Amino acid sequence: MVLLGNDEFLTELSKLFQKARASGSVTMTIKRYDGRTKPEPRDGTPVVKNPEFKCLVRAQSRSKKLSTVIEQQDVEKFTTAYSNLLKTSVNGLKRLKKPKKKAMAAQ
Prior knowledge:
Layout: E1 2-4, H1 6-22, E2 27-33, E3 54-61, E4 64-70, H2 75-89, H3 101-106
Helix pairs in contact: 1-2
InterPro entries: Signal_recog_particle_SRP14, Signal_recog_particle_SRP9/14
Main location: cytoplasm
Protein name: Signal recognition particle 14 kDa protein
């Protein structure tokens, strides 16, 4: 998995969306990240806690994997850029047909 900077991640993600447009899918995960790269020891020794949490964003399409870590002060900037990217890239979705109310009442 490649750890990129925020701007590099967004440019690579747009390329990933373009490749997946013809066939395939892109899986995104966003989770809280506290900066630890090693597990906490079991013997009870105190671990220095970092009060600043970050966001870990991952994207995967077929065998290509991307990731980035977003600092607290950059979250708003990243989310606006990410939402703009989604608006421009995810335009080929099909509309779901809603079932008729009468058909649902008959069941």
